[in-house]
């Protein structure tokens, strides 16, 4: 490793001012060096990487990138190295220097040149050094990030050089941080190191804290108190952000609970049907997403980012129709007999699970995250993942939509009329059996679209629904049966309470404590947070 | 009167089943498959049922065993632990099978143990487990902790320079025992108490935000940090999704898992997970001709080119071949004869070497550390230079380090205490 590092310095000094001169050099001379990569273990590969980097020839970049991605292969018969792309049982080969196609080989005739995390780090640093001056700011940012993580004193010159030309403030900050981190590892004088400590303190995030705490044991003289104060300050800000983070996690968990429970709030809360197959409606929604994505993958890969929007109506319809079928086929015969409803719907849930298992197989299905749902962004010192954020937004939209349907549409009016006083609604000419079926279908359909959202964060397997059924009932009972607002407040409260307990009590105990809390709460207020008042209660 | 009638009916029934059994024994040798095909564990166990059917079909193509054809008897214990015991009894008593291949979770194995002991039959158990057990009628073809967990920790310590450890697991017997062993091992290696964080989560845990953020915090102490995960099947997908989205890269905080194989990764986009690790005794990517042949046969058998192979399948491959060899050696399928003849039987494994059955009913295996690739496969980055014999009783736990298991005569004991010189378990 040290051998390589010194070579990298030489390399970057060589390449930055005079890269173009090397570009013209005959790349063929690199071939034996690249073939040498197929040599042996990781240490040999690392050494050979150093040799390749020392040539200072940009021609090695594709080979290095392919190696980092694990796409570099050696032919077993003659040891020639190619970039390979798997295609069924063969590899499609590409020449690592000319980048021209070089035929294909059977998989068992090729040997992969292995990389591990250590090598990947080395390659990342090497490529980082090469791309510090790249035209694309995102590449430069990634390069600066790689240099920050490498903390290599040898990179200070390269960073200084890059800093003289850097204009993008975001990249500049990262480069300065990378330089400061490298300075702490170097043998620079105390004054320079104190400056670096100040830079890191100003950065104030977890990465800075990590660098500083790594430096503390090596600090000398005035550096020790400076590092300690800097760490204490960062700790303090991080603690404040930690509380904010907990609230966010609570809301995020609450939104998942809300999504899972909101359909149940209709079928159980409004109609009073104990529907144990509710979780399976969620699962059906998730499987619809899977099927939609499969069709898109095979026929129109370009539309992948819109797959969830297409899955939403389909999931609503599929789960809704299954729900109506269950209501017409089973539940309508069991109104007023909660115990039998419970057992019958439990049976239905097992049937649905096994049906899905027979059709799609018992294993997890891959549902991909569209680009806009992958990754995370930083808000202050908080990391917020996009998928969680969109699920919070989505759950609130679903809630608002449902409220709108129930309060502002004729169907909503009928539903409320039927649940409040069935006989009077019937005498007013409402076909109560059909309203029952449609309401049940609505609840199931909502569960279906919850499945689309949950497919983004959970397993898409036949057991998906089981994990949510208990939580859903808990939310609805806690929030108050028959009240959608209660479901919203209940879900959010349970989410936040759970997440505040988790860091202290651990995930297992937190769940138990929440359960005990609900039991005690129900003792005090048997009808939940928002109890319905008046005649509806007795209906 | 009624009593006698029932008694006679029972006797008649017994006679017919026994007759039926005897009849069947002449034509075929029956092999029981005891894997859940429905319920929570179907996700993992169904594949093993298919693998067993394939192995039996292949053996029949080669002319069967002792001149007879093999016949698979498949039952579904439906992920219901007590049902495992009932179905095991049904396989042995009603279907008269000569050996059973099955179980996945430790609790299902514990539930069938008394049945196999009482009826004196054979069970081949193919899954990595927590150790601390050796039973006369059971053969453990999966990894014991010293064949998976300990080498993985050694790898991280030596090759990656890890100094801080997060032991994260699902809250049940396998992770708890494994983490107890690992904690004792790490402390013996000089890791300080504050550099170990232990975290348990419920089955099917799906909200990993807090824990992933805790891991990030724990990892920002300036020391290289790694996560050792004994998180069970279903909870892994949300865990890895959260890791990927939170931007925790394997180069910074690697996660090594003991329950994540090719099958579990099938439901995941592995692009952001490249470099995270798993420790097993077999990976589908193993570069050996016998493995390529096995994969080809598997694809042909299932008719699906995308079906992956995994470590417990290899364990069944080894276990089944060991049983076949032992039966051929003994010349009979009688359990007592096979228990004697199977010790020392050596068969090829799928990574290009050989595995042997040891007197403690565990087998020798190579230990492989693999990194997740973007195609959902693992790339072996390190392996033990030789075979590691499975250790039934951990050397790092009080109460178990003095115990050994040896089922050869005259010792014939699964928990022999070398200190007291008595066969009598951990209490002694």
From TrEMBL, chain A:
<dbReference type="GO" id="GO:0006865">
    <property type="term" value="P:amino acid transport"/>
</dbReference>
<feature type="signal peptide">
    <location>
        <begin position="1"/>
        <end position="23"/>
    </location>
</feature>
<keyword id="KW-1003">Cell membrane</keyword>
<dbReference type="GO" id="GO:0022857">
    <property type="term" value="F:transmembrane transporter activity"/>
</dbReference>
<keyword id="KW-0732">Signal</keyword>
<comment type="similarity">
    <text>Belongs to the binding-protein-dependent transport system permease family. LivHM subfamily.</text>
</comment>
<dbReference type="GO" id="GO:0005886">
    <property type="term" value="C:plasma membrane"/>
</dbReference>
<dbReference type="InterPro" id="IPR017779">
    <property type="entry name" value="ABC_UrtB_bac"/>
</dbReference>
<protein>
    <submittedName>
        <fullName>Amino acid/amide ABC transporter membrane protein 1 (HAAT family)</fullName>
    </submittedName>
</protein>
<dbReference type="Pfam" id="PF02653">
    <property type="entry name" value="BPD_transp_2"/>
</dbReference>
<keyword id="KW-1133">Transmembrane helix</keyword>
<feature type="transmembrane region" description="Helical">
    <location>
        <begin position="247"/>
        <end position="274"/>
    </location>
</feature>
<feature type="transmembrane region" description="Helical">
    <location>
        <begin position="503"/>
        <end position="522"/>
    </location>
</feature>
<feature type="transmembrane region" description="Helical">
    <location>
        <begin position="281"/>
        <end position="300"/>
    </location>
</feature>
<feature type="transmembrane region" description="Helical">
    <location>
        <begin position="434"/>
        <end position="454"/>
    </location>
</feature>
<keyword id="KW-0813">Transport</keyword>
<dbReference type="InterPro" id="IPR001851">
    <property type="entry name" value="ABC_transp_permease"/>
</dbReference>
<keyword id="KW-0029">Amino-acid transport</keyword>
<keyword id="KW-0812">Transmembrane</keyword>
<dbReference type="InterPro" id="IPR052157">
    <property type="entry name" value="BCAA_transport_permease"/>
</dbReference>
<dbReference type="InterPro" id="IPR011989">
    <property type="entry name" value="ARM-like"/>
</dbReference>
<feature type="transmembrane region" description="Helical">
    <location>
        <begin position="389"/>
        <end position="406"/>
    </location>
</feature>
UniProtKB/TrEMBL annotation, chain B:
<feature type="signal peptide">
    <location>
        <begin position="1"/>
        <end position="24"/>
    </location>
</feature>
<dbReference type="Pfam" id="PF13433">
    <property type="entry name" value="Peripla_BP_5"/>
</dbReference>
<dbReference type="InterPro" id="IPR017777">
    <property type="entry name" value="ABC_urea-bd_UrtA"/>
</dbReference>
<protein>
    <submittedName>
        <fullName>Amino acid/amide ABC transporter substrate-binding protein (HAAT family)</fullName>
    </submittedName>
</protein>
<keyword id="KW-0732">Signal</keyword>
<dbReference type="InterPro" id="IPR028082">
    <property type="entry name" value="Peripla_BP_I"/>
</dbReference>
């Amino acid at each position: 490793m040290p051998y390589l590092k010194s070579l990298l310095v030489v390399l970057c000094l060589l390449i930055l001012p005079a890269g173009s001169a090397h570009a013209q050099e005959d790349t063929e001379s690199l071939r034996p060096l690249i073939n040498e990569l197929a040599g042996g273990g990781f240490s040999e590969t690392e050494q050979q990487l150093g040799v390749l980097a020392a040539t200072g020839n940009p021609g090695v970049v594709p080979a290095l990138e392919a190696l980092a991605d694990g796409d570099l292969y050696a032919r077993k018969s003659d040891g020639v190295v190619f970039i390979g792309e798997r295609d069924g049982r063969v590899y499609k080969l590409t020449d690592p220097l000319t980048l021209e196609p070089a035929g294909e080989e059977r998989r068992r005739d090729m040997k992969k040149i292995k990389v591990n995390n250590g090598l990947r780090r080395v390659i990342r640093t090497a490529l980082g050094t090469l791309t510090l001056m790249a035209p694309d700011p995102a590449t430069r940012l990634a390069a600066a990030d790689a240099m920050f993580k490498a903390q290599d004193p040898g990179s200070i010159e390269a960073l200084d050089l890059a800093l003289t030309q850097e204009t993008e403030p975001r990249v500049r900050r990262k480069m300065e941080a990378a330089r400061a981190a490298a300075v702490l590892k170097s043998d620079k004088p105390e004054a320079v190191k104190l400056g670096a400590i100040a830079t890191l303190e100003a950065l104030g995030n977890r990465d800075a804290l990590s660098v500083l705490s790594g430096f503390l044991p090596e600090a000398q003289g005035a550096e020790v108190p400076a590092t300690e104060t800097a760490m204490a300050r960062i700790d303090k800000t991080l603690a404040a952000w930690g509380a904010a983070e907990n609230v966010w996690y609570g809301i995020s968990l609450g939104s998942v609970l809300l999504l899972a429970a909101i359909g149940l709030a209709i079928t159980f809360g409004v109609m009073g049907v104990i529907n144990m197959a509710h979780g399976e409606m969620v699962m059906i929604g998730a499987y619809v997403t899977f099927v939609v994505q499969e069709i898109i993958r095979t026929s129109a890969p370009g539309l992948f980012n819109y797959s969830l929007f297409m899955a939403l109506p389909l999931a609503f319809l599929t789960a809704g129709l299954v729900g109506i079928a269950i209501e017409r086929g089973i539940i309508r015969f069991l109104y007023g007999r909660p115990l039998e409803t419970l057992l019958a719907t439990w049976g239905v849930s097992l049937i649905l699970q096994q049906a899905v298992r027979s059709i799609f197989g018992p294993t997890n299905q891959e549902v991909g995250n569209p680009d806009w749902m992958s990754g995370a962004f930083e808000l202050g010192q908080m990391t917020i993942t996009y998928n969680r954020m969109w699920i919070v937004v989505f759950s609130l939209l679903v809630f608002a939509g449902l409220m709108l349907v129930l309060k502002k549409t004729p169907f909503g009016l009928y539903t409320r009329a039927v649940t409040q006083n069935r006989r009077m609604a019937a005498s007013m000419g409402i076909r109560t059996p059909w309203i029952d079926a449609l309401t049940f279908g609505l609840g199931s359909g909502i569960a279906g679209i919850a499945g689309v959202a949950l497919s983004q964060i959970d397993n898409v397997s036949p057991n998906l629904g089981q994990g949510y059924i208990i939580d859903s009932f808990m939310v609805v009972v806690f929030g108050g049966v028959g009240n959608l607002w209660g479901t919203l407040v209940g879900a959010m409260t349970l989410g936040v309470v759970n997440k505040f307990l988790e860091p202290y009590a651990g995930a297992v105990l937190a769940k138990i404590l929440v359960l005990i809390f609900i039991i005690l709460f129900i003792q005090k207020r048997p009808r939940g947070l928002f109890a319905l008042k008046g005649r509806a209660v007795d209906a | 009167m009624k009593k006698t009638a029932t008694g006679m009916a029972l006797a008649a029934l017994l006679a017919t089943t026994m007759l039926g059994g005897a009849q069947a024994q002449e034509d075929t040798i029956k092999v029981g498959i005891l894997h859940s095909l429905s319920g929570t564990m179907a996700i993992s166990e169904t594949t093993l049922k298919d693998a067993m059917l394939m192995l039996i079909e292949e053996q029949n193509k080669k002319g069967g065993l002792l001149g007879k054809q093999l016949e698979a008897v498949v039952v579904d214990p439906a992920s219901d632990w007590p049902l495992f015991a009932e179905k095991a009894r049904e396989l042995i008593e009603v279907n008269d099978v000569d050996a059973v291949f099955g179980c996945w979770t430790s609790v299902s194995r514990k539930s069938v143990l008394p049945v196999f002991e009482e009826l004196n039959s054979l069970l081949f158990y193919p899954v990595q487990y927590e150790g601390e057990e050796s039973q006369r009628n059971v053969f453990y073809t999966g990894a014991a902790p010293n064949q998976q967990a300990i080498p993985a920790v050694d790898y991280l310590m030596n090759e990656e320079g890890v100094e801080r450890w997060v032991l994260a697991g699902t809250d049940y017997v396998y992770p708890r025992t494994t983490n107890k062993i690992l904690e004792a091992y790490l402390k013996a290696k000089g890791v300080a108490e504050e550099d170990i964080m232990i975290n348990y989560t419920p089955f099917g845990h799906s909200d990993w935000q807090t824990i992933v953020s805790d891991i990030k915090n724990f990892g920002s102490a300036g020391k290289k940090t790694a996560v050792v995960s004994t998180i069970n099947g279903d909870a892994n997908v949300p865990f890895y999704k959260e890791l990927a989205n939170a931007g925790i890269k394997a180069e910074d905080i690697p996660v090594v898992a003991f329950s994540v194989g090719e099958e579990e990764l099938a439901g995941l986009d592995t692009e952001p997970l490249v470099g995270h690790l798993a420790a097993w005794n077999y990976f589908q990517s193993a570069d050996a001709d016998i493995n390529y042949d096995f994969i080809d046969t598997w694809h042909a058998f299932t008719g699906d080119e995308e079906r992956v192979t995994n470590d417990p399948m290899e364990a069944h491959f080894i276990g089944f071949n060991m049983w076949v060899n032992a039966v051929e050696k003994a010349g009979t399928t009688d359990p007592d004869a096979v228990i004697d003849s199977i010790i020392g039987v050596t068969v090829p494994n799928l990574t290009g070497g050989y595995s042997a059955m040891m007197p403690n009913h565990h087998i020798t295996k190579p230990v492989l550390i693999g990194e997740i690739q973007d195609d959902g496969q693992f790339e072996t980055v390190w392996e033990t230079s030789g075979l590691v014999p499975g250790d039934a009783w951990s050397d790092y736990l009080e109460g178990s380090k003095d115990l050994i298991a040896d089922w050869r005569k005259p010792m014939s004991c699964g928990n022999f205490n070398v200190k007291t010189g008595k066969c009598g378990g951990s209490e002694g």
